[in-house]
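note to self: dont lose this again. the chain is below, predicted strucutre after it. 208 aa total, dont forget to put it in the shared folder this time
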Amino acid sequence: MHAAVYARVSTERQERQQTIDSQLVDLRAWAESNGHNLNDSHVFRDEGYSGARLDRPGLDALRDAVRDGEVDIVAVLAPACLARRYAYQVLLLEEFRRVGCAVAFLNRAITDDPGDQLLLQIQGAVAEYERALLGERFRRGKLQKARAGQIVGTHPPYGYRYLPRQEKAAGQWIIGDAEAETVRLLYAWLVEERTTLRQILKRLNFGP
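---
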């Protein structure tokens, strides 16, 4: 797997706890022991940046690499190195998960601890909310187009064909003469003769 590692320390913590270099030593050792490919271009660091904010150059570069599918797994020493705020941790983990990138915390694996389970539940809730939001936006977008008389999609129903947009004229569906005749015949069977769907299928397959 292609791995990326991320290390961060803020200035006030650096003298009291681990430095960037000591974090990277542990992270590189983790990648090697697990057989992951770790390129120098996928070693990201933020020195002197608070974890209470997301606008960090190293983190931005990491997110870009994950978004572009360059890595399969990201290793961080602990959740607090990724972000100090719980909501930011959830946001980043869900962002990585959405594109299929795993996250490994060397000093704190996800366990059955109530706090860890809460994190997973919030991730699930965020993902469900985003799916619902996108679905609703898509539905309302199609409804708005339909109300404005615009074509929704480019795959016309049977009996029509799609005429692409030309200059200022919007795309439209126009009746296909050959298929329209079949539609009229089916309509007559169903409405005028009150033929069942089973009988209609039989007529279409074997003739009247």
